[in-house]
Specification:
Double Stranded RNA Binding Domain, seven-stranded mixed β-sheet, alpha/beta, about 30% strand, 7 strands
Length: about 220
Amino acid sequence: MRTGIILISLALVLSSCATFRSGMGGKYGGENEKNYNSEKVSILFIFKHTTQTKGLDAIPKLSSRHKIISGFDDIFMDAMNEITNVRDYTSFTDYSSDISDPKRKAMRDSLIKKYDYTIEVRISKMKSFSKFFFGTVVSVATLTVFPINYRYNYALDVKVFDPEEKLVQTYHREAHLNKWIQTLLVFFYPFHPEKRKEEELYVDFLHDVLRQIESEKILKAG
């Protein structure tokens, strides 16, 4: 009995994970062109962060402000360097609680009217309930000796609206993270932490879409 407890404790102590990311689906493949001489415009970015456990959640759920990836504002500011003809910009994040908050809804509507362009950005994070459930069962049953893969699917959907609030263009990107859990992955973890891989994915998503918007000269002064 004591030996079993020691083995289980040792396995839990040694168990670790390593996260690997896929390439980006829908990546922009055109020439990178800058609009240094274009008249500058103002932009409102409206962000929606959603999560869904497929097989458990019926629909995607908007993330609360505390569940959005740490450092997202810094990632967004860095990506804004891709657009050169910006006079002014700000961002607004939708939360599920906004439906019962008239002040937040009024603020959102007033911002849309104030800025030249509105860019809606939805970032979705999805996982499979059944795969995570059975993966956890196998991981516990084998004391994490058997490697288990937990996959998170990410999607970026962007809509650009002109000053008349008409849809100008849409963009879509997708990628996934594979989080492997197994005893000996403790030696790989320092080089493949989940937080860094997720940040890299967000950085690539935003930079690539804004780079394409810049190259296609979507944002033009009226």
